[in-house]
Amino acid sequence: MSRTVIDLDDEALEAAAKELGTTTKRDTINTALREVTARYRRLRALGEARELVAEGALDMAVLLHKSKYRPTGGPDGVRDAGADE
Predict the structure, then answer these.
(1) Average pLDDT, whole number, for the chain?
(2) Distance between CA 25 and CA 28 in Å, rounded?
(3) Residue 16 located in a structural domain
(4) How many angstroms from the chain centroid is the CA of residue 84?
(5) Which structural domain range is residue 24 located in?
(6) I need a labelling partner for 19 at 20 to 30 A (CA). Which of 5, 57, 58, 72 fits?
(7) What's the confidence (pLDDT) of residue 85?
(8) pTM here?
(9) Among positive and negative, which fits the CA dihedral 14, 16, 21, 22?
(10) Among 8, 45, 13, 44, which Cα is nearest to 27's?
(11) 5, part of any domain
């Protein structure tokens, strides 16, 4: 953890704290940094998934149809040995 002295936009800090549900400057800034990082990681992953779909390497129809990738079995959800093999 590092200590840094910076000038902050008090109105932006207050608005961010309300949105994030934080009460201190430190928590607001640290939470905002984590949120921004996580958001951009999700956006990159979405972009990569879109590329895979466009290239035909990922079939969204299969992913959206859960019965195509979830094992089937008896009423307790346990798959019978060798049932579909």
Answers:
(1) 85
(2) 5
(3) yes
(4) 33
(5) 10-64
(6) 5
(7) 46
(8) 0.63
(9) negative
(10) 13
(11) no
User: What is the number of structural domains in the chain?
Assistant: 1
| pLDDT tens readout for residues 19-44 | 999 999 999 999 999 999 999 999 99
> From CA 62, how far away is CA 36, in angstroms rounded?
31
The answer to whether 20 touches 35, Cβ cutoff 8 Å, is yes
Other residues' Cβ atoms within 10 Å of the Cβ of residue 35: 13
Cβ count within 10 A of residue 77: 9
The CA-CA-CA angle for residues 35, 39, 43, to 5°, reads 175
Residue in the structure block whose two tokens are 């201190």? 24
In a domain, 47, yes or no: yes
Residue tagged 């992913």 (tokens):
63
Report d(CA 47, CA 39) in Å as an integer.
12
